[in-house]
Design a protein that fits this description.
Elements (H helix, E strand, L loop, with lengths): L3 E6 L3 H11 L4 E7 L28 H20 L5 E11 L8 H6 L3 H4 L4 E4 L8 E12 L1 H14 L3 E4 L20 E4 L16 E11 L6 E4 L8 E7 L6 E6 L1 E2 L8 H14 L16 E12 L4 E6 L6 E6 L9 H18 L1 E4 L2 E4 L3
Parallel strand pairs: 1-2, 1-7, 2-6, 3-9, 7-15
Antiparallel strand pairs: 3-5, 4-5, 8-11, 8-12, 8-13, 9-10, 10-11, 14-15, 16-17
Helix pairs in contact: 1-5, 1-7, 2-7
């Protein structure tokens, strides 16, 4: 059997997971092309800035996201149990509803109440939890996993390398450029577009529905006794509250914001103060349950990242590249769900690529020809 040359664009969690699953097929020769790779810090490279945790998130009517979450949870849970080098650990989690939560932000809490099938080993709704602030009316508790991206992204890359995936640091302006960037020097047959926010400006894609959703966080050295998050705040509709302790000494992430259309790269000092005040109030164990100010927090850094949000949700489909140069499989627009649907989306990418091969069509020397299967 001849090998199929595949280029994956992007080395965030979606690109790396897609490349890893594709590389498990010995017929697929995979090259990853990316401007940013694990270890980089850039506002447009969203994955390192993520919380990142598995939370019940998809709406009941969103069957795709529910299926992707259901496929992703067993993998992340298995890594937490058996692969400490991946930087994932189990965490008790409290998802709270504030008395002051705006109605449009209550969706996170309401969606959590019927999501027991794959995200919890202990799941219950608690009213008037004495361990939470008085402005919290209800909380949903369960066991989830929290991911340290500083370890997990290099772990995914290392697994790709182990399977023979090649990596090239390269910036492109048009998706057609990928056809000539495979590590073998041969024209690529299939392109997998995991470009995230770049999809809005990338020639040949130019998806105007992709917009940044700015997230601001504070990383502190203190440890939290659990993950705590609240669906909304009484400060602003586009601000959030979450406390997430990362695995393996990765510190605790305090957040946050979800500012759609805002791409400002600089941390807002006033927002940072509100984040820290809210997180201390929601999780007093951060400061030893003492009545202290935000100066008690030992700050490692302030961060800003841009989530690749997309109106209409994730784009996951195939199309012929204009001019017949290759087949493109799109996998972008994950917003704040990238980690928790990563394996499910990557599985669908593999399914689409397998389908392209089963249909018997590949591209050679710019011509669409019948594949030799």
């Amino acid at each position: 059997m001849s090998q199929i040359d595949i280029v994956v664009l992007g080395a965030g969690v979606s690109g790396l997971t897609s490349a890893l699953l594709l590389s498990r097929n010995p017929r697929y020769n995979v090259t990853v092309i990316a401007k940013h790779l694990p270890g980089d810090w850039d506002i447009n490279y969203a994955s390192p800035w993520a919380g990142a945790i598995f939370l019940p998130f998809s709406a009941a009517e969103d069957s795709r996201s529910r299926r992707w979450e259901a496929s992703t949870w067993p993998v992340l849970s298995g890594l937490a149990a058996r692969a400490p080098q991946a930087g994932i650990h189990y965490q008790g989690t409290s998802l709270c509803r504030s008395l002051y939560t705006p109605k449009k932000q209550q969706f996170l809490y309401s969606r959590s109440q019927n999501r027991t099938e794959h995200s919890s080993t202990l799941f219950k709704i608690i009213k008037n939890d004495p361990s939470l602030p008085t402005n919290v009316s209800h909380s949903t508790t369960f066991t989830s996993v929290c991911i340290n991206p500083a370890l997990y992204l290099p772990y995914l890359q290392s697994q790709c390398l182990r399977n023979g995936v090649s990596f090239k640091r390269h910036a492109i302006s048009h998706i057609a450029e990928l056809t000539s960037l495979h590590a073998t020097g041969r024209p690529a047959t299939v392109l997998v577009n995991c470009s995230g926010l770049l999809a809005s400006a990338l020639g040949g894609v130019e998806d105007e529905t992709v917009v940044p959703a700015r997230g601001q966080t504070v990383l502190v050295r203190q440890e939290a006794d659990r993950v705590v998050t609240c669906a909304g705040t009484d400060d602003a509709d586009d601000e959030l509250v979450y406390v997430m302790q990362r695995a393996a000494g990765g510190g605790t992430i305090l957040g946050g914001s979800y500012q759609v259309g805002n791409s400002s790269p600089d941390p807002d000092p006033e927002l940072a103060k509100r984040i820290m005040r809210r997180c201390i109030a929601l999780c007093p164990s951060l400061v030893g349950n003492r009545d202290v100010s935000i100066e008690a927090l030992d700050v490692v850094r302030h961060g800003v990242g841009l989530r690749p949000s997309r109106k209409g949700g994730v784009r996951l489909e195939k199309e012929m590249l204009l001019g017949g140069g290759a087949v493109v499989v799109h996998n972008y627009g994950h917003g704040g769900e990238g980690y928790q649907i990563s394996w499910g989306c990557a599985g669908d990418v593999v399914g689409l690529v397998d389908g392209i091969m089963e249909e018997g069509w590949v591209v050679q020397a710019g011509r669409r020809v019948r594949a030799r299967l």
